[in-house]
Amino acid sequence: MAHVSIIDIARLAQVSPSTVSRALQNHPRISPERRAEIVALAEQLGYRPSQVARSLVTGQTHTLGVVASDVTDPFVAEVLKGVEAAARRADYGLLMAMSNRDPAQEIEAAAVLLDHQVDGLIVISSRAPERYRHLPRTRAHAVGGAVPVVLLNHDFSEAGVYSVRMDNAGAASAAVTLLSQLGHRHIAFIAGPGGGQSSHARMTGYLQGLALNHLTPLPELILQGAGMLEDGWEALAALQAMQPRPTAVLCYNDLAAMGLLAAAAKAGVGVPDALSVVGFDNIPLSAYTVPALTTVEQPKAALGQAAVRTCLRALAGEPAPPVVMSGQIILRASTGPCRLPSAVG
Amino acid sequence: MAHVSIIDIARLAQVSPSTVSRALQNHPRISPERRAEIVALAEQLGYRPSQVARSLVTGQTHTLGVVASDVTDPFVAEVLKGVEAAARRADYGLLMAMSNRDPAQEIEAAAVLLDHQVDGLIVISSRAPERYRHLPRTRAHAVGGAVPVVLLNHDFSEAGVYSVRMDNAGAASAAVTLLSQLGHRHIAFIAGPGGGQSSHARMTGYLQGLALNHLTPLPELILQGAGMLEDGWEALAALQAMQPRPTAVLCYNDLAAMGLLAAAAKAGVGVPDALSVVGFDNIPLSAYTVPALTTVEQPKAALGQAAVRTCLRALAGEPAPPVVMSGQIILRASTGPCRLPSAVG
DNA sequence: AGAACATGAGCAAACGTTTGCGCAAGCACA
DNA sequence: TGTGCTTGCGCAAACGTTTGCTCATGTTCT
């Protein structure tokens, strides 16, 4: 027995297919009795409407596209979870693709999703925002013309491109202030992937924080990284070699911080006594490191939800202003007062 | 300017739409010149075929459904990544939904994905395999009748349901043997979520491992858990209270192990001196704990790829026998020789 | 030279919905 | 009783493809 269609129901109910269609979508001009009869019949036959056929005529798939840089990154995973929950609540499907942190793959993935006629696109941690400008995203019945793209953790303003992000700069600056208040004068920064807005903004915030606390920014205190465990792991040696030696480190994310923590433990560098470490993201694991990681909470699930909300707003033709959420410092055990006399002063 | 369709091309090339369609899919009965002309025109117009329309007539969406228990679990994320990569390579889209470890949500998600006419379904860590038996998954043009379901880390054999998993029991048993060889006589086990096959199999393997090494299984040495950080964290107190006190613990997964590690560090219980800890999954972070975690490697990406391969095989009508991969113990620093004289014996 | 066949292309149906329009019957109003 | 509005439903087009069939032309074989 094949798939039961609206026509089968029509035949059995002795009505036209259009009547069945209207009955099932609660069209006002269908008599209550007919509706009841048809609904019952549909239920009984186990009728499930063909989303594909529906999409073809309406031009909407009721599906959102998500391109994520890498689900393996706990931050991304948490955001994705928020996106999924919100999409499900709004009865939207989720078509997923991964960019593997590569701009080319990102844009390619976006194109593929658009080919599948997603109603909207959400990009978690874009690395190539400017390329959405020329991405053809016209749709057959498109409401506002193009399918909306919402960039998560990127502020790129362009028609049809929306933005949901955290106040990375503010949070990073606050983290530096915290360290400064603990007495640290030499604060290093392990940067994140180039191309990402969040990396750039956190760097900016780091510098702002230094300025705010009258600390002199030293280029050599900034280490390159990509937001991965290895970054922190490898950073320790560089930190140890610095003159003056930093007593605190702000990391691009928790992953880098955890790498650093592991390296410190291995090298016998006491945290926080010899080195204070601050992460970013507050991934679940950060509460379980040794010592527990002081970090900046990002409202990950909320960011995901906001992205979906923004996308749906844009779809509805409503205004969808940029969303900026603020972080909050989670004080745990990886930070402490500066124990070393400042080598320079 | 709206979406350019096959008809627009046909008009411009002065041919029929069918010719355009055939030209674009390299049908043999189209002259090379025509094909070239049409292909060029399509390229120039930026033509992108409507997957929706195509799906309607072919009955295939070229899309796989994935229901994951929780992307936030690093194991799941890694597997998902493998699935995504393999699907992309095969030119398949990925429709994603999350079950949040809830059987009801799992089956509901599966139904939603099926409504979107996914060609196949991959379930990462199913908790309700038996319910796929009665899930209506007939398709209009279905090749083999029903859309294939491949269960990842579950062995449930039923027509149309395929299985890709790891040899959980064998690996768990091997882990116990390792601990036994290190001199441990009292080995505890923190179990995983009930309902999951992997949890059950690892438990079985644990018991087999005990038997194999002539250790007596004690019910009180088995703690309940759900494969989460908190499990390990909370387990420490229980372990400490046990008589005889276990000197080693096998955990359902790395997450639980990391929770335990954190708790041990906080309580001043030396690992591995006072307590050896073995995890499961070998998530990336497990190499960066303090001490680094001894664990069982699961070929996560390979599992994901195998799931896609199996699904595609089933779709092609080829035989798709169950896949069983074997794990391998990764020896790191959280395990060591038993230092305590056995209290009993 | 006739038959059989290969080549290149078009016609039209089909996929399963949604929806604008038309139409008949019933009703209220003047 | 005629006019106009409402209610309930059907007709048919449309969405953008794919594909079985048909058909004309050219080619090769006997």
Could you walk me through the main structural features you see in this protein, from its secondary elements to its overall organization?
Two copies of one chain form a homodimer. Chain A has 345 residues and is of the alpha/beta class. Chain A has three domains: 6-49, 434 Repressor (Amino-terminal Domain) (Orthogonal Bundle); 61-166 and 300-325, Rossmann fold, CATH 3.40.50.2300; 168-299, Response regulator (Rossmann fold, 3-Layer(aba) Sandwich), CATH 3.40.50.2300. In chain A, 41% of the residues lie in helices and 14% in strands. Chain A contains eleven helices and twelve strands. In chain A, the strands form three sheets. Chain A has a six-stranded parallel β-sheet, with helices on both faces. In chain A, helix 1 (6-13) crosses helix 2 (17-24) and helix 1 packs across helix 3 (32-45). Chain A is elongated and about 85 Å long. The model of chain A has no long low-confidence stretch (mean pLDDT 93). Chains A and B meet through helix 4, helix 5, strand 2, helix 6 and helix 10 of A and helix 4, helix 5, strand 2, helix 6 and helix 10 of B.
CATH topology of the largest domain in chain A: Rossmann fold
Query: Beta-strand level of the residues of chain A, as a percent range?
Result: 5-15%
Specify the CATH class of the largest domain in chain A.
Alpha Beta
CATH architecture of the largest domain in chain A: 3-Layer(aba) Sandwich
Q: In which order are the strands of the major sheet of chain A placed? A: 2-1-3-4-5-11
In helices, the fraction of residues of chain A equals: 40-55%
What is the H-and-E element order of chain A?
A: HHHHEHEHEEEHEHEHEHEEHEE
SS class of chain A: alpha/beta
> Which pair has the most extensive contact?
A-B, 58 and 59 residues
Q: What is the 3D shape of chain A?
A: elongated
Helical stretch count of chain A?
11
Distance between the termini of chain A: 84 Å
Assembly state (oligomeric): homodimer
Overall strand count of chain A: 12
Total number of distinct structural domains of chain A: 3
Largest sheet of chain A: 6 strands, parallel
Mean pLDDT of chain A: 93
Task: From the alpha carbons, calculate the radius of gyration of chain A and give it in angstroms.
Answer: 26 Å
What is the CATH superfamily classification of the largest domain in chain A? Response regulator
Low-pLDDT residue spans of chain A: none
